[in-house]
UniProtKB/TrEMBL annotation:
InterPro entries: G6P_Isomerase (IPR001672), G6P_Isomerase_C (IPR023096), Phosphoglucose_isomerase_CS (IPR018189), SIS_dom_sf (IPR046348), SIS_PGI_1 (IPR035476), SIS_PGI_2 (IPR035482). Its EC number is 5.3.1.9. GO terms for molecular function: carbohydrate derivative binding; glucose-6-phosphate isomerase activity; monosaccharide binding. It holds the Pfam family PGI. Belongs to the GPI family. The active site is at residues 353, 384, 512. One of its GO terms (cellular component) is cytosol. This is Glucose-6-phosphate isomerase. It comes from Methylomagnum ishizawai. Catalyzes the reversible isomerization of glucose-6-phosphate to fructose-6-phosphate. One of its GO terms (biological process) is glycolytic process. Pathway: Carbohydrate biosynthesis; gluconeogenesis; Carbohydrate degradation; glycolysis; D-glyceraldehyde 3-phosphate and glycerone phosphate from D-glucose: step 2/4.
Amino acid sequence: MTRPNQLPAWQALVQHQRDVADVHMRDLFAQDPQRFEKFSLCFGDFLFDYSKNRITGETLGLLLDLARQTQLADKIAAMFRGDRINVTESRAVLHVALRNRANRPILLDGEDVMPEVNRVLAKMRAFVEQVRSCQWRGCTGKPMTDVVNIGIGGSDLGPRMVVQALTPYTTPALRVHFVSNVDEADLMQVLQGLDPETTLFSIVSKTFTTQETMTNAQSARDWLLSHAKDPAAVARHFIAISTNAKKVAEFGIDTKNMFEFWDWVGGRYSLWSAVGLSIALAIGMTRFEAMLTGAFRVDEHFRNEPFERNIPVLMGLIGIWYDNFFHTDSYAILPYDQHLEFLPSYLQQGDMESNGKTVDLEGRRVDYTTGPIIFGQPGTNGQHAFYQLMHQGSELIPCDFLAAAKSHHGLGRHHEILISNFLAQPEALMRGKTYEEAKAELMAEGVTGERLEELAAAKTFTGNRPSNSFLYKKLTPETLGSLIALYEHKIFVQGAIWNINSFDQMGVELGKQLAKTILAELAGEQEAIIHDSSTTGLLEHYKRLR
Ligand code: F6P
C-alpha cells in the first residue's frame, strides 16, 4: 500500500494549504452568501455545520480525492463485512453488528453472528426487567437499589458517559455508580452509603484479567461478604460482563450471571454490547435499544451516503486537513450540554487509543502525524478555563461545538443563555477582532494615546480559528446513539486514511508489565532489579515514607 503522503491527492493538498493558508474565513463568508448551505448537512434532526472551517470547495474536492486514493470505500466495506481488519490481533471489528437493527446476517468465518447478538440482548432484557421490577432479590430478599459498575477504560468510560448523558431517563429507584481506579479512594467513596443487601456489582472486563478491575472486584466481594457472611450471597449480588467465561468462573461468579460479548468487540467500541448493561439498568432496555437504533441509522448513512454528503467521512477529512496540513496537535470537544460532561474523556480513549499509532498496517514507521490530543469540557465552563488559549494563543485548535435545541428542564433563561454562548464562541473564533475594531471600541470608551495602542494590540483576536457545530433537537437515547456512532466512524475514517490499525492498543502494555515487576519488588517477592536512577530514587523514597 502506498503511503498516504506519497499519493497525488496528499501532495496536492500540501500545495493547496500553502495557497489558502492566509485566506481568512471572514472573507470566505463575505464572498459567498451560500457558504452555510454549501457546507452544512442535516441527518435526522441533527444539523452538522462545517462551514466555519478553513476550507473551500477545492479543499473538499482534494480531501475527497485523498479518501478515494486511500481506498476508504473498500475499507468501510471490509469492516461491515467482518474482515479481520484488526490485523495485529487477527480479529474482525464488528461493533456495528451489535446495533444491526435490520438483523441482516453478518458472517464471521462463514457463521452469522446475529443469533448470538440477539440471544445476549434478550438475556439482558430479561435481567434488566427482573431488576427494575424488583423481582431480582438480594441475599436477604430485598430488591436492588444500587448498581456498581466495576471496570476501566472501555469497560467504564462508555457506560459512565451514557448514564450521565441520559440522566433525565434514569430512575432514583435504581442508582448506577462507577468505580474504575485502583486507587482505593474510588471504591471507598462509592461504597460509603451503600447497603450491601441492596447493591448489585457488575464486573465488566473483556479479558477479566485487568489488574484494576480484578482488585476492585475482589475488595467489593470482601465488603459484601463481611456483611453477608455467606459465600452464596455472591450469586445474588455479582454479575459479570466478559468474553472470558473461565476467568469469570474462577473469580466465583456463576456463569449463569455472566453476559457474554466477543473478541470482535473492541473495548472502546463496546458500550453497545453487554458492556452497556449498566446503561440498560439505568434507563431500561427499550431506551437502550433506541440508542442502538440511533447508532444503526448512522451506520447506514456511513455505508451508503456518497462521501461528499457523508458526515463521518467529512468529520474525518476535515480533521486530517488540520492534523496533516496545518500541523495542529490537538482537537477540542466542547459540548454545550452538561449531560455530555464525560464525552471528552470518552472520546479521549475512543480517538487516542485508536489512532495513537506510529506504525502502519505494513509495519512501517509513519512519517506523518496521526491522532491528535483530544481534550474538552462542557461549555460554558471551558470558556472560563482554556478558551483564552483557543482564542489568542499561538496554537491552532480545531474543535467541535455540540448543543441541544431543547433542554430537559426548562429552567428560566438558562438554556437560552447557554445557546447564546454556543453560537457566540464559534463566531468569535472564526471572526476574531481586528486591531482597528479593537481600537475603535477603546476610543469609544475614551482611551487615548499610548495606552490605546497597547490595549488595542492586546485586544486583537486573529480569528480564522476553525470549528464544527452539531445542533440536535434534544439529547434522547436515539440522538446520543447517533452522536457516538458519528465519532466512532470519524475515528475509523482517519485510521483508514493514515493506514494504521485503529483497533489494537499495544502502547498500553509496557507500563502494565513494568508495574507488575515493581509490585513484586515492593512486596518483597522479587529481588530488586536495576531501574534507571530516577525510578530507583522514587522507589526508595516511597519505601522510607510508607
Ligand atoms: O489498557 C487498555 C485496555 O485494554 C482498553 O483497551 C480496555 O478498554 C481496558 O484496558 C479494559 O480492559 P478489560 O475490559 O479487558 O478489563
